Amino acid sequence: VTIKNIERELICPACKELFTHPLILPCQHSICHKCVKELLLMLDDSFNDVGSDNSNQSSPRLRLPSPSMDKIDRISRPGWKRNSLTPRTTTFPCPGCEHDVDLGERGINGLFRNFTLETIVERYRQAARAATAIMCDLCKPPPQESTKSCMDCSASYCNECFKIYHPWGTVKAQHEYVGPTTNFRPKILMCPEHETERINMYCELCRRPVCHLCKLGGNHSNHRVTTMSSAYKTLKEKLSKDIDYLIGKESQVKSQISELNLLMKETE
């Protein structure tokens, strides 16, 4: 709340954004460096438009275009002067107090930069970033700012913690991770044939998950289906049995390999 109250004092009255390289005007108000340039260029263009309107009253008044970067560079360059037909203006209304401000012969070059305000704005930016930062869930106090979030673990990590808890060569290294976030939505599998439908059945004949549209009028209408939870439990049990079988045969296979190696040596 305190930071938000300070923010209104750090907003440029011209662009309504945080100050960028603020300059101090003769009326003691501050304004962004780029905003002063744009105001002067718009006033010059307005002066030229008035002259063209007087010569052709039937022509509609066009909206003032935004000044190009090359025009901004020229107007701020020391020694730059317009010709006599398009006089350079140095007076404009201050966006803060609306009083006319005359920059004199030096123009923008005669204004001083508000370094104190610039420092305060930069510290405010840092404080605002820290207030909205997502911190690491696994760091020891004090926690570091997180750099990524794991969608499978539903946690945020700094670089060091992510390397520790997701080491290369492990299953966790294959987890899906995104930028720092607090929105850990559960993964939802969508049907490849009906992109707007969620997968909620398992076809036992095709051995693949399907949606209700696939069963009602699709390629799986005459196939036997079961629920995803039931299919998951059945397939998990089968996979566990297959793994146990392979582990049980490991010693037998190793002994057979040893016997084959001995036979090879005897044959040689």
From TrEMBL:
<dbReference type="InterPro" id="IPR000315">
    <property type="entry name" value="Znf_B-box"/>
</dbReference>
<dbReference type="GO" id="GO:0007340">
    <property type="term" value="P:acrosome reaction"/>
</dbReference>
<protein>
    <recommendedName>
        <fullName>TRI36 ligase</fullName>
    </recommendedName>
</protein>
<dbReference type="Pfam" id="PF22586">
    <property type="entry name" value="ANCHR-like_BBOX"/>
</dbReference>
<keyword id="KW-0862">Zinc</keyword>
<dbReference type="InterPro" id="IPR013083">
    <property type="entry name" value="Znf_RING/FYVE/PHD"/>
</dbReference>
<dbReference type="InterPro" id="IPR017907">
    <property type="entry name" value="Znf_RING_CS"/>
</dbReference>
<dbReference type="GO" id="GO:0007051">
    <property type="term" value="P:spindle organization"/>
</dbReference>
<dbReference type="GO" id="GO:0008270">
    <property type="term" value="F:zinc ion binding"/>
</dbReference>
<dbReference type="InterPro" id="IPR047065">
    <property type="entry name" value="TRIM36_Bbox2_Zfn"/>
</dbReference>
<keyword id="KW-0863">Zinc-finger</keyword>
<dbReference type="Pfam" id="PF13445">
    <property type="entry name" value="zf-RING_UBOX"/>
</dbReference>
<feature type="domain" description="B box-type">
    <location>
        <begin position="186"/>
        <end position="228"/>
    </location>
</feature>
<dbReference type="GO" id="GO:0001669">
    <property type="term" value="C:acrosomal vesicle"/>
</dbReference>
<keyword id="KW-0677">Repeat</keyword>
<dbReference type="GO" id="GO:0005856">
    <property type="term" value="C:cytoskeleton"/>
</dbReference>
<keyword id="KW-0963">Cytoplasm</keyword>
<dbReference type="InterPro" id="IPR001841">
    <property type="entry name" value="Znf_RING"/>
</dbReference>
<keyword id="KW-0206">Cytoskeleton</keyword>
<keyword id="KW-0175">Coiled coil</keyword>
<keyword id="KW-0479">Metal-binding</keyword>
<feature type="domain" description="RING-type">
    <location>
        <begin position="12"/>
        <end position="63"/>
    </location>
</feature>
<dbReference type="InterPro" id="IPR027370">
    <property type="entry name" value="Znf-RING_euk"/>
</dbReference>
<dbReference type="GO" id="GO:0004842">
    <property type="term" value="F:ubiquitin-protein transferase activity"/>
</dbReference>
<dbReference type="InterPro" id="IPR050617">
    <property type="entry name" value="E3_ligase_FN3/SPRY"/>
</dbReference>
<dbReference type="Pfam" id="PF00643">
    <property type="entry name" value="zf-B_box"/>
</dbReference>
